[in-house]
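Hi team,

Filling in the usual template for the complex we talked about on Friday. All components are listed, including any nucleic acid strands or ligand strings, so the model treats them as one assembly.

SUBMITTER: L.P.
PURPOSE: interface mapping
COMPONENTS: two
RESIDUES: 736
SEQUENCES:
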Amino acid sequence: MLKPMDTQYGFIGNRSHDPYVAGRDTLSKEEQDGECIFETVGEVTSPDPIISVRNCNVFYGDNQAINNVTLDVGRNEVISLIGPSGCGKSTFIRCLNRMNDTIEGARVEGDIRLDGEPIYAKEVDPVLLRARVGMVFQKPNPFPKSVYENVAYGARIHGLARSRAELDEIVFSSLERAGLYAEVKSRMDEPGTSLSGGQQQRLCIARTIAVNPEVILMDEPCSALDPIATAKIEDLIEELRQNFSIAIVTHSMQQAARVSQRTAYFHMGQLVEVGATDTVFTNPIHRLTEDYVTGRIG
Amino acid sequence: MSEESPSNSALRSSVETRKRVEASLGARYRRENRFRFFGLLAVLVSVSFVAFFFVSIISQGYTAFTQTYIQVDVYFDPDVVSPDGSRAPDVLSQVNYSRLIKDGLGSMFPEVSGRKPKQLLNRLVSNGAIYELRDRVMAEPDIIGSRESLWFLADDEIDAWFKQYSRGDDADGAARLGDAQIGWLRQLVAQGRLEQRFNTVFFTSGDSRDPEMAGIWAAAKGSFFMLVVCMSIAFPLGVAASIYLEEFAPRNRWVDLIEVNINNLAAVPSIVFGLLGLAVFINFLSLPRSAPLVGGLVLALMTLPTIIIASRSAITAVPPSIREAALGIGASPVQAVVHHVLPLAMPGMLTGAILGIARALGETAPLLMIGMVAFIVEAPQTPLDPSSALPVQIYLWADSPERAFAERTAAAIMVLLAFLLVMNATAVWLRSKYERRW
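RESULT (copied from the run log):
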């Protein structure tokens, strides 16, 4: 169970003057294991948030996976979520489009708003929400259908195209924006699963943007890809930022540094630090963040 | 006892390790060879049982696919067929056609006299011949007054004799025929009036007391109706139940209870389902006895657990990433299942369904309970007509005293096995054709 740290370590109680572990060279075992409550340091809010999360807690049965996280995702920004394995990054972004609803025994508490509307309110339809908040998964998961059908599927089920020509337009422009059109224009009828791993992941991105969401969640989109495919996806993320807000979970700190404007560091289900990406990587406030970005833990 | 402590002896040199490994290798390989030998032996034993089974069935049954025909010169005597010159169907259907055959045989063997020998002579031809004659005359009444050489089904004993005779076996010794009959038969053979033809009767007619007129058509049609009823009930129900249980049902004690019961139902003896069908469908719902509809319902109950289990494992085999992908772009849970999970699970579901149906096709016991064991000549026109089924037909024929039914039993088993092989092959083909890699 989580317990407040003794005040002498400066997390709870005297946060007003010393929110981080100033002047200490070592972390206690409780801190490393996350068995204490951290006060998030840095700028959790955004001047123009599209998603704002306040005091979010997630439970899987009796296990608490996310503990009191408050964070904004800004409009047209890329925010990367980093942290060691099992720290709750993926769980957190799955709250943002209610994918955790599909997991038996998962319970989400707290106030999560998309453009000011609470997404966990009773009247909100998760199907509509997921059309507004798209998701790209860790492993490329194209449908075992043709390339064309993969991209067209979202538009079809949401009734976005009124004619075949409109559907073609949506499919081709989405593939174009995903940087895949030139590679697959002669292979529209081949199964999506026949593409290479990197192409499959861009196909999944094209499938997501075909629905024209406001936010795209990416859960380690490059972890199954080689460096060249990764570079392509990273370039793509930079372009997509013009039109979408993106939250990306990544294990690669270099990737976070390359693609994101803000970075949030998670540790054992808690949000430890948020800030501008270069600040977090070059001048972190919290000792745990520093240890992680310098490779001492993780 | 050596002075060495156990921990010291464990710290052996690499040379010592190598020695010990080498020493143990022989025993290891021997064990492996023994294991392989027993595995091979088990396979050989099972294969030889299957081979024995097939050889015995085929060697007993292949003769049933031919049938002996006997040529008789028939004079459509106007005095017998229509003494008053009328050609109305109700008159022609009442004629004593056996007279025509008696007269025909009599003219071929004029030396036969006396009541008993004449009776024996008439028995060369099957009882079914008179119906053939009647149909012929009623179809073309102009034939009356003419003479014609017609081929008729031979009696089953004659058939057995001629089959053995043409194979060169000791036909006379094995036959249950008198010397006089064998003499006539030899005469007929010499005149080329006995002939073996493909046994179309076996495939086109229903059951009969006379083996040469008995066929599997009525039983096959009954089985077909039953399978249609069974499939059209068990497959949608099974698929719907498995989708609900896998994709939508909450995890709680009730669902666990249902799952345990489904698994148990799959192992319930089929005769219990027959009793259930008797109680529910016939006694309570008053559906007709012996009807393929009831048989199909009972078989549907019986195959339902099998289909549910197979469908559930097919659904489980669909990777969750496909569901997530669909849900992630805003498909509703039902859309995710119908558009993505179901098409991917369908080959597995169909395979399970076909194997369940194949089992249902061969099932006899529950059909006995609902009265499908009756002697039924007419092929059913609808699933509500009284009918028999292939395995029941086999059971009935296996019980019949006439020798000719033995070969027909084996032949019917071969037909049933052919159906089963076709169904299993379809299952394999479906699986390989639609199996996807993710």
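MY TAKE: The longest helix of chain B spans residues 14-61. Residues 197 and 205 of chain B are 16 Å apart (CA to CA).

Thanks, L.
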